[in-house]
From TrEMBL:
Gene3D superfamilies for this protein: 3.30.530.20
Protein name, UniProt field: SRPBCC family protein
GO molecular function annotations of the record: iron ion binding; oxidoreductase activity
Superkingdom per UniProt: Bacteria
Amino acid sequence: MQFDTTSFRARYRAEINPRYSAWLHGGFVLLFGALCIGFLWSRAENVQPWEWLAVPLALILQNWGEYMVHQHLGHFKHRFSKMFYQRHTGDHHSFFAYGQMSYERAQDWRVIFFPAWLIVVFAAANLASYWVLSHWNTNVAALFSGSMLLGYLAYEILHACEHLPEQHPISKLPWVRHMRRLHELHHARDLMQTFNFNVVFPLWDWIYGTLYWENEGHIEDRKKMTSMQHHIDIRRSPEQVLGYLSTPTRWHEWHHYPVAIKGPSGSLPAGAEFAYTGGRAGHLLWDVIEYVPGHRWQARARGRYGLMMFVTYECKPMGTMTRFTRTLEYRFSHLIGRLANHLFLRKRIEKDSADLLDNLSTVAEKVIPASSASSPR
């Protein structure tokens, strides 16, 4: 069932203190942060070439911290960070959903920006780091600590830009448009715990294999996908066979490796979603695209390293038997995934696909009752 974002927005706005000022909120964060950066950078004098390396080092470290905090605290509940989890997943992801990413009034900035006091805490931590590092090298201390604060402000600014109305001139800037699309995909409720945690620059999403891209309208170029097809004959009706195979919670019965499924039971219709763990693919998020009982079932999976996969099950009556055809199409958008697929994965996946159907041929007639005319549950 789709989440009612409009109703949540109305409730959230009704609870905002009437004295809240979005301009004061955003202005304080930017001004206070800029003043702290100016103070820190003013401490640097006669900077040597190697000392400038403190700037990219700090930005990379801040980008990593953004990724880790967003993924592990923003999307998984812990006792010590439950307030942050509630504000992020509970409020921000409920206020902004896939297809409803734009703020509508300045009051909405409250659910975009971090609380104003957080910039004070972050600045205090970096002033402390400056004091510690200055005992070794004042220039490195000033550049490093100031750049960490710069990364914080970059997050606040770019995150706000990613929630601008689509027609806003800033939204059309190339980098903002690109990151806005990645952030919108992150706000899809089935993707938010798995993909696109960086907001400013997707460095660590790329490194950890959690970078996910999907064209507008879910249009995929199927010609670029690796494709393989296998079939077997099963002495059961097409309705029985497809009803059984379109029930993911029973996949463990015919897969030759351990499989764990988290999702609804029974034969899944179009629009259903489930999570899968097992085999070479690891953790996958699935959504069913099509289900025509007795004829065709198709689902799409998304995984790490830019994996996009389509599995199609087709059944055709052959006298007293059913010709079952399994078609697998997949591609990796991540360089590491594409390289691994070229070097060794394709052969292994092809063998796994053949082994799956060999195993199914020995299992299907044992677990599908000969007299049953309904889909198994």
